[in-house]
User: Fold this.
Amino acid sequence: MQIIMATSNMDKVKEIRQILEGTEFQILSLKEAGITLDIEETGTTFEENAAIKAEAVRDLTGQLAIADDSGLVIDYLDGAPGIYSSRFMGEDTPYPEKNRAILKMLEKAEGQERSARFVCAMAIAWPDGHTDIRRGVMEGRIAYEIAGEGGFGYDPIFYLPERGCTSAQLTAQEKNAISHRGKALREAVSVLKASIA
Assistant:
């Protein structure tokens, strides 16, 4: 089953393909589907933004579309960067710069004050017009320093106490097993499978 993923972020597409490996679902990015669409994320929650993206692609193509909206929620920063994670400090600002800025903002925070989570909302926009949304969360803390080469985005500063490392220090397989996106996508796959059963 071919599904259009409402994203141009190839890191996200790659991660989702890894999670879906061995299933009957094949993901196409907007570019691979030949779609040029500038979708304005006007929602105030991850769920609203995921739905806006998936529904825009579904409405344009008439096909099943999925979208995720995800980000880093830091308690010490009152939930920032949250839904603005990719746009934090400007969309063109490289993540190493964003990560260094966050570490600076938290330099006075200790222990539990550094609590944070990655949140992912996954929306499935069906051709019949309805939308299903599933949510995944990965709890952790903001590290004291950047560490790891894996993953992307904020992974090098997201510390997992139970693993003793950042999510960028996990293998792709280890990360996908526990990540916010992995959890949300597996829930979404259950919904998709139930619909074609």
About this structure: The chain is about 30% helix and 25% strand. The domain at 2-196 is CATH 3.90.950.10 (Maf protein).
